[in-house]
Design a protein that fits this description.
The chain has helices at about 5-30, 40-60, 70-95, 100-110, 115-155, 160-170, 170-185, 195-215, 225-250, 255-265, 275-280, 285-310. By secondary structure, it is mostly helical. The chain has a single domain (about 5-310), classed as Na+/H+ antiporter like fold (Up-down Bundle).
């Protein structure tokens, strides 16, 4: 690629991504300044998780063109990349002898992804076609990653099939994706202005979600565990997108599908991993450090990864 085209691509990426990280920083600053109050942020996260974000996913899938011939390849790519990552984590656990409390934190640091940041970045870079693919990816990745996360945190004491599947079946994001696909297949569409209502709810989701991501950052948790935080961040932010790139090349995915897949595997881990880690008795201090450092470093790694892709 000529130098001028590369520079233009990098400039476009930075212009698309810096407002997202500006919202994350704003969320951190607002919580630190206790505005609008400490009680606001948990409730804002609940509103987004149960109403606004499902509205975005439902709206994207209800009218999406599902006849894309690359979708089976994209699904195969997702499971190949996740499967290879999971096998690598199991091998590391066997070699290092990690208890479930640490293995669960490391696993979530590698496998989970910040959905709000991902959809905001894809929407900025690829518009509605990218959001449709991202919503389909979520329908595949969220249940798989949730099951693996619960198992990894419970590996020392065992977990029942009900304990693994119930959180997935109750997940509002999964339910919204399934409902959107069913409405799409039914041919009913979104009549009577319901598409406009869902669009308004969806428009509020990503800015609020990014503010909540910033509010959840815990820089004080970065003390100690420097080696563990460093290698976990390197694997998530650099090795995982490299793996996704290799899988996309191997399966010959089209450019848009490849870009969306790689971007999802380049995202920092999900802030909600901290809640699950605490609930299941994992190392919450380590998990908070991983979330915070990955989110901060992603401001540099995401533009780097996407600019290399554009090359």
């Amino acid at each position: 690629m000529p130098v001028l085209r590369l520079e233009n691509a990098v400039t476009t990426l930075l212009q698309a991504l810096w407002p997202l990280f500006a919202l994350i920083i704003a969320g951190y600053a607002l919580r630190r300044w206790q505005f609008p109050g400490e009680a606001f942020w948990p409730e804002a996260e609940r509103l987004n998780y149960f109403i606004l974000f499902p509205a975005l996913l439902f709206n994207s899938l209800a009218t999406a063109p599902l006849e894309n011939p690359a979708l089976p390849q994209l699904a195969l790519a997702v499971f190949c990349a996740l499967g290879a990552s999971w096998l690598g984590l199991l091998l590391l656990r066997r070699l290092r002898g990690w208890p479930a409390a640490r293995f669960g934190a490391f696993s979530q640091g590698i496998l989970r992804f910040n959905t709000y940041l991902g959809l905001a970045a894809i929407g900025s870079l690829h518009g509605q076609p990218g959001l449709v693919l991202a919503a389909l990816l979520l329908a595949l990745m969220v249940p798989t990653v949730n099951v693996l996360s619960v198992w990894s945190l419970s590996a020392d004491r065992g977990v029942s099939a009900r304990g693994l599947l119930l959180p997935v079946l109750k997940n509002p994001l999964i339910l919204a994706c399934l409902a959107g696909v069913l409405v799409n297949l039914s041919g009913l569409g979104l009549p009577g202005g319901s598409d406009r209502l869902l669009g308004l709810l969806a428009a509020a989701s990503l800015p609020l979600g990014l503010l909540c991501v910033g509010a959840a950052l815990r820089p004080q948790e970065l003390r100690g565990e420097k080696a563990a935080l460093t290698w976990n961040c390197a694997l998530r932010l650099l090795a995982m997108p490299a793996l996704a790139f290799a899988v996309a090349r191997l399966l010959q995915l089209p450019p848009l599908e490849s870009s969306v897949l790689i971007l999802f595997f380049a995202l920092p881990t999900a802030p909600t991993a901290y809640v699950l880690t605490r609930q299941l008795g994992g190392d919450s201090h380590l998990m908070a450090g991983i979330i915070t450092l990955q989110t901060l470093l992603a401001a540099a790694s995401l533009p780097l990864v996407m600019s290399l892709l554009s090359h």
